[in-house]
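Hi, does anyone understand the following?
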Amino acid sequence: MITMKTHIQDALNALVGKPLWSSGRSAGLQWFSFGERQSVTGVRGNVKEVGEYALHIQCAWRIIRHDEVIVASGDVYAEPRKKPSRELHLKFTLLDERVQELFQGEARRFAVEKVEAADAGAFCISFSDGYALNVMPDDSSDDEHWRLFKPYTEGPHFVVTGVGLDT
């Protein structure tokens, strides 16, 4: 019998060797862009860049480097250390500030070295220079915790919920 952990490992293995180059949020969803940049036309007709793969997370997550938490989902509740230079449509938080600093706009890239699936939908993506993204589903509802997909394609989405896979 193939376990959920095995399915997750197989899906996330597609990211090994790809760069992580951007992250942002929309309300309670944090997105991460992996792979080569691709120009696409959005729903409003605007051209934007997306990654070859997108990881959308709606549960607890953090980026660490060795023993230091660099940024984490809980930072969305904290005030930034600096006032933003321009007015933003979302409330600017410590999470937004730390993500901007980490990615230096979108100039900094992190090479995916390995992925490790864990139980109950959790996983770790290890990057170069000792960085890692830990994702930890933190509730038992049947809501979506995270999904991996190729943006602007007809391909399937790999979706993990509190009660298993929904692909």
Q: What stands out?
A: Residues 9 and 119 are 11 Å apart (CA to CA). The longest strand covers residues 29-41. The chain is about 10% helix and 45% strand. The chain has a mean pLDDT of 92.
